[in-house]
Amino acid sequence: MSELNKLGLAEARDALRKGDVTSVELTESCLKAIEDADALNAFVHKTPEIALERAKAADARIKTGDAPSMCGLPIGIKDLFCTKGVPSQAASRILDGFKPEYESTVSQQLADAGAVMLGKLNMDEFAMGSSNETSVYGNAVSPWRRGNDDAQLTPGGSSGGSASAVSADLCLAATGTDTGGSIRQPAAFVGITGIKPTYGRCSRWGIVAFASSLDQAGPMTKNVRDAAIMLETMCGHDPKDSTSAELAVPNFEAMLTGDIKGKKIGIPKEYRMDGMPAEIEKLWSDGAEMLKAAGAEIVDISLPHTKYALPAYYVIAPAEASSNLARYDGVRYGRRAHLAQGDGITEMYEKTRAEGFGPEVQRRVMIGTYVLSAGFYDAYYNRARKVRTLIKKDFEDVFAAGVDAILTPATPSASFGLGEMTEADPVQMYLNDVFTVTVNLAGLPGISVPAGLDAQGLPLGLQLIGRPWGEGDLLNTAYALENAAGFVAKPGKWW
Amino acid sequence: MSIDQSTAAKVAKLARIKVEDDALPALASEFNTILGFIEQLNEVDVDGVEPMVSVTPMRLKRRQDQVTDGNQQDKVLSNAPDAREGFFAVPKVVE
Lengths: 495, 95
Prior knowledge:
The complex is a heterodimer of chains A (495) and B (95). Chain A is an alpha/beta fold. Chain A has a single domain, classed as Amidase signature (AS) enzymes. Chain A is built from 15 helices and 11 strands. In chain A, strands 1-3-2-4-6-5-10-11-9-7-8 form an 11-stranded mixed β-sheet, with helices on both faces. In chain A, helix 7 runs antiparallel to helix 15 and helix 9 crosses helix 12. The two termini of chain A are 23 Å apart. Chain B is mostly helical and 95 residues long. Chain B has a domain of 35 residues. Chain B is built from 3 helices and 2 strands. The two termini of chain B are 41 Å apart. The relative contact order of chain B is 0.08. The chains are: A alpha/beta (495), B mainly alpha (95). Chains A and B meet through helix 9, helix 10, helix 11, helix 12 and helix 13 of A and helix 1 and helix 2 of B.
């Protein structure tokens, strides 16, 4: 079999079980693809020794006939996950040199299931960004291009390295994390599938914290079946995360029947934004038609507080970030600034954080500090938390009215060029998450499925939003959409 | 609400991030852009609405208040920029 790195998880699993390939062969194929793809800057810490060691162990385990689905499958891990003995620095200078003494629960569960870690993936610094341009490692680059134009495009963010790596077949799948859209927006930009599960499904333990009430891990994969397989391994109760749900994890893959007859799919009118490109509008209505043709009932719904989701997010997320990032003080881990004669501990903190955090992280930490400061706490932070209650209630109301899933565009545009947003004010970049951020605020599961190409040949995605803990049903609806959309485009190799 | 340079300086101080004086005007201007965006929230009627505490209606798990691990001094210190004699070392705090 040639070009094993191009396989998806399910295909590779089946080939491994049949004995057609070995995990070592799969892993070597991916390692070769990674070596050839430095131009994408997706893998920022490569771990070939660990990969080959785990692949050999997986091959032995598969021979016993008792191996879980993920056994022997080579994947990439976002740099936000702490991985024992392997640099984990959330793409920040302030964690330069940090090698955790422990492993995140999610990456541990993947390792326990026999998955093979190929290395760590690029991302926006502390997962703050929508274009992977805030990384200390430099930009991750999308494998996609606008026709014959050789301008470099963003793979989206914050899980930009994960998106680029999966789309370019450097790995079979990758982990991502999603605080405001950081799995779904990059997945849509590069034509892959990405799911953010219900808040509490995946343990956050050992994942560098950004905004703890919003952060969730999830898989980024080549198709919906692969997402079901990998998500099941990543989920589950963890006593080390007090917000982790004590719920059984279903066999998500077994729920993929493609039968969505009688399902009620809501189309929220508030997601029809002024100035939305006609292509996105068409993609959205085509998606609704596809689900209707598959037997679903399409209903118009209203989520009246949608407009206030981004402003609420830009209070809550920076507030939580300012608190979470207070731990980076140059004392316990990471990088400490060089101090001048006579500098005291306050100068050490201030210089370390000024040198260690990039401009976007500094901006959000300071905004968070401001909205939590005495005199403004009620006006900003408490008000945003009240609006969050209303946003969640919008969803509760439509689910109570019998809606099973909600269909929206995943992003307001296709991928844009690296550097094109440099002159824009920060709020323009924040608008990338306009369709995804509501889902984090309401704690719901959301999945991005590639559904078409724009006139320049770039992927566009649709988002489905499900009921809390309803990932199985949501994946099945996404599977029906995937079958109908028949998206098969891949980027031409230029790197 | 508009942020002036002295407020920006105060916020930077509270956040323990050193910002040079000549960078303060640009910082204050960025803050004002973002806060202007956030101020849309004032349009929402939030009377009688409870601020969200937890997105899932679950009580945080509790556990016995007892030691669950320990004896990991080497591991705890292994990533410190400056560790001496089993402690984190910092510049002089007390005169």
